[in-house]
Amino acid sequence: MRPIYLDNNATTRTDPSVVAAMLPFFSEQFGNASSAHAVGRQVAESIREARRSVQALIGSAFDHEVVFTSGGTESDNTAILSALAVQEQRDEIVTTAVEHPAVLSLTDELGRRGNKCHLIPVDCAGRLDIDAYRRALSPRTAVASVMWANNETGTIFPVEVLAKMARSVGALFHTDAVQAVGRIPIDVKTTEIDMLSLSGHKLHGPKGIGALYVRKDTKFRRLIFGGPQERRRRSGTENVPGIIGLGKASELVAVELGRERMKIAALRNRLEQGVLELGNCVVLGDQENRLPNTSNIAFEHLEGEAITHHLNRAGVAVSLGSACGSGSMEPSHVLRAMNVPSILLRGAIRFSLSRETTSEEIDRVLVMLRKIIAKLRGASPEVPERARSISRFNESIQ
């Protein structure tokens, strides 16, 4: 049997039709889009078509609001550094304690350089402390950067409201929407969001390509200097095959978003129901307001590393948390920020589905998990006092 892949928040499989759309741009339509001749102009037109596809997916008003980048990390860095550069007399950043390292690593560095960075806490379900966010905003705030959806728990933040609040103090608002784009409907033109990051490999496109939405008339300072590409907002010869792939992936996901979202959510719920029947486990995150494909389940008294090891040997790919932190033995910064009890902290497994996930695969995983959990529990006796603390945490999530 083929492996079962349930780690789609780390990356998705590139859709075969996306690969087919990309291939001609390696050997047949290989021109430089900046060239004046017909070969180059043909490529430039294909880039424009891809840009319009991304525009349609996120609901931006103008195609030139889409700036192609190398991915989510570059987009996040560009947005925050640009906001600091163009906002005179403003040197503070407001973000959250559960952001992706693409944001938190940058804000850590900026803090060492003298910028003040406010990390807004979350509650035990991963929901943002809105009052703390409001208090952190001030005339010194250059940018508020809040992810649209968390990569580990799937919890969705009210970015439309948060953008309005940032605007009320004259700050720019950026959202890392890498996990949200292609999974939930987005229409940026109806919001006050100034900048938005997305990445191709999270929506069945290729790796190494992403985009930064920059609202028209938003002051902007580019990160990469050089030639006139991307209307002088991101220099460097375009990654044409990647751009074409992102455009095609955007087209595909836009067509089926509504139907696929419901199907994926149903499979996610089926998985959770089956796992919860095993007992002594908790679904983490805001279960009423999260991505349809994401389930983070913590098992009491067990090590997530052992669970993922056994699943991997059985041909099932899952994650301990975000892929960028999976090489570390340290507990997830997201779960720590949620004050997840210590005996759950190391037993959390993230399952992330895609439109390619099938009901048969979910059933196979549940069969495997029953055997794996039973085996591991035989070597990990329950501690009554700890069990009571988990029960209290579970009640606080509801």
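(ticket continues) Second input and output from the same batch:
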Amino acid sequence: MVVAALFFALMGLFVKLGAEYFSSTELVFWRTLIGVLALGCAALWRRERFATPLLRYHLQRGVIGYASLLMSFYAIAHLPLATASTLTYTSPMFLALLSVVLLREKLPARAMMGLALGFVGVVLLLRPTLSGEVWFAGLMGLASGFLAGWSYLHVRELGRQGEAEWRVVFYFALISSVGGLLLMCFERWHPVTLENVSLLLGVGVTATLAQLAMTRAYKVGRKLTAANLSYLTVVFSCLLGALVWGDILTMDSLLAMGLIMISGMLAGRR
């Protein structure tokens, strides 16, 4: 999970650098297309079956997850890397909340306290954003976290139905790539050149490696430990933002990030 967190942070770095040349729609398309090719070729090599009786769940998860990814990439392009990553990592809070609202699950007092802390952190983190010129990017980042939490409900259901992990990741990437192609019919394609192709490869390769490392972590390790370690993405994003762009976080921002991370850890202890 530490490796996954590092690669997710590096993916954010390449997304932010690539935003100079490509739109968020294009970046998501190339990111997921590389995943489709890598996972598809590996599945063909192992002679895996692509057919699944759970296509409806894959479609629902894919559409919601694709919208989340688009919003996340937009937020990364327009906000400090650490802020955008933290907003995306509100997903465990929303997953816990949606489990109560949609699935009628009961949360212990510890998880409820975590949700309360998390929303205080969101308010603190968004306060300077909403008063500035990038308020829309802040809302997109928060919406990304909400949709990611919703998509994880479908991932959990796919797991309960016994769906293979590689198919969950593959169909998400495939649906996102098709969605990207459809959206790009209404946008202008930016040329891929020797100057920027490395950024696209960076986005796709780091995202795929991060996804594989995360899947491995949840498969062989303790799920709660893996979930808590995933917040290292925020730490790595802070370091990368400071090193590459000289981002300096205020005490309010650091406090907000800490509250959101504690919230996700508490919400996961169910």
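Agent notes: The radius of gyration is 18 Å. The chain has a mean pLDDT of 85. Closing as not reproducible unless the customer responds.
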